[in-house]
Amino acid sequence: MNNLSLRPTPLLAAFALLFAAGELSAQPTELRRGRTLTGTLAAGDTARYTFEAGENDFVLGEVNQISIDVTIRVLDPDGQQRARFGGLGRGPERFSGQPSGAGTYTVELIVAGDDDDASGEYEITLLRQERVATDPKKLADQVMARFDGEHSPGAAVRVWRGGETLYSKTYGMANLTYGIPFEPDTRTNIGSTSKQFTAFAIMLQAERGHLSLDDDIRKHIPELPEFDQTIQVRHLITHTSGLREFLNLLRMTGRRLDRGDWIDRSEIIEIVQRQAKLQNVPGAEWNYNNTAFGLAATIVERTSGQDFHAFMQDNVFGPLGMTGTMVRPSPRHMVPNMSEGYTPTPDGYLQIGDLGGAAGAGSMYSTIADLQTWVENFANPRVGTRESLDAMMTSFVLNDGEESGYGYGLFIDEQGGLKRVQHGGADVAHRSMLVYYPEINAGITTQSNHAQFNSNVAYELAEAFFGDAMELDEEGEGEGAAEDEDFDVEGYDPEDFDEFVGRYPLDAVPSFVLTFTREGETLYAQATGQQRLEIVPTSDSTFRLLAVEASITFLRGEDGEVEGAILHQNGQNQRATRLADDEAPEEWAPTEDELADYAGRFYSEELETFYAFAVEDGELVMRQRRLGDVTLAPGEEEHFTGGNFTFVFERDRNGVVIGFYLSNVRTRDVRFGRVG
What we know:
Layout: E1 29-30, E2 36-42, E3 46-53, E4 57-65, E5 70-75, E6 81-85, E7 91-97, E8 103-111, E9 119-131, H1 136-144, E10 155-161, E11 164-171, E12 173-175, E13 180-181, E14 188-189, H2 195-207, H3 233-236, H4 246-252, H5 266-274, H6 290-304, H7 308-320, E15 326-327, E16 343-345, E17 348-350, E18 364-366, H8 368-379, H9 386-392, E19 411-415, E20 418-426, E21 431-437, E22 442-448, H10 457-466, E23 502-505, E24 513-519, E25 522-527, E26 533-537, E27 542-545, E28 550-556, E29 562-569, E30 572-577, H11 592-595, E31 600-604, E32 609-616, E33 619-624, E34 628-634, E35 639-642, E36 645-651, E37 657-663, E38 670-674
Helix pairs in contact: 1-10, 2-6
């Protein structure tokens, strides 16, 4: 098992790794199934527990945080961290997965957060320890076990093949406030999984002659600006428009989308109207874009004369009999029988609500049964033509002749030798995945209202249910960067990593650069605008990240030289090409006096937003009213990163800093000018 697993990195990405400063007990206490142990924990202490695991065991444990917020670390027999769980400040926090091999595993408990005076009580229980199920249905129960029970937001899974439902089950709670369990007919926010429905609506309107995919989008939305290049309708539904991505853009303004800040649909057009120029030539670059799908929904409205939610009901959901599916026009609209989304925090589960302004890009609620009905329409169309559906499932060809790996609202790739058509989704707290294997007319969907749920378990369960039709390795796995079970991690010489050190821009998004470095025996990976994360070897050319669920495979050319890498994350394999040494920027370590050049106040006309910079303790600090203070790290000269942003400063002919360009991958080069 991959997700929720002790073998690869866990799904928890938002919490920094915490190392214990002290010891609570020299000798670990043995965990035994069904026995609850109690203890107290204070900041700086580490409580250790062990359990013996077989090579094919499944383990499920629970820490009841009675009066202390605990981070759970699981170490393998070699002392390497294999998983980490945390984020919920009180109540039951579960950990689960499959150990990477037989031996003695250690569960470490440390106090979460940075309160030096924190202390309190907890209970720890090993709930289950059993063989990993070979029956796909029982395996699904094990994978979902962490999200089951009356104290946890829930999850759901449904599997079908050849028109027959093979498995359908729900777990946990749809609403914690009122104690409502997750049921098969519970409606859940499917996030970006909605994009295929929006693309389908565009295709329906094209079939009916109300639009052409070749149309200039200004034909249908004339108030949009006239850029230097024409954006066609097809560019919207293939993520190749060159428009700024509005959610990333609004975050730059200080909008707290993670706290439910209001976004109105009308803002999308206003954002495009303020964009000075396109980020790329339409059709030249694939860059995931919610703005484009919001505009696509608007085009459906204007060519049909109906609100988007009404069009979808009358033309898609109704005709297909999808009685549990609806577009939510805004987070204020009622959704009968819905699951609330929950985000774990030190204060308990927060009920933040949905993203606003997302109709077309998201804002759709559905049930697991309805999603099966929808995918079965791909196999035997009752709504839409065979030609339209085949076009949706065909990878878009970029201007340079390369395939993007994305059709119309759908990712197109392979798994175990089978064509895979899929799309995941994530709203603030809801998680979704819908996968279709057209060659065997089979599909699977996983849904959850828990922000820590990893929807990619759909791929692993697909291998369990459809393995007879897949080409799997000896471990029964069909994708990703495989770990070498015989690889001696302890014997790996960190200096061997030096041949991989360097910068690797993603081929699909060259501005997004993966940088690999070594400091002593510690290896690091850092993405543009993000913090540096520790990585560990799993073979002589594969590595996994400790803090996020991702892995790296380095690639060699015919001459044996390292020429690129593949980032494995969220079910996607993103290729990156290594920059030559003469292309890589020189290391830059500005002095405090040099940093003073960047201090001041800057304003963006496009965002109508101020940023301020100051030098504190030899570091450059960015301040924004709602984003707070962010310490920036220098990159190449005139470049800084921090807060998941990249800042590229510019100077005038006299060498005076006059502005900077702000980027966060999906939204790039937003200019700020100095005002003070």
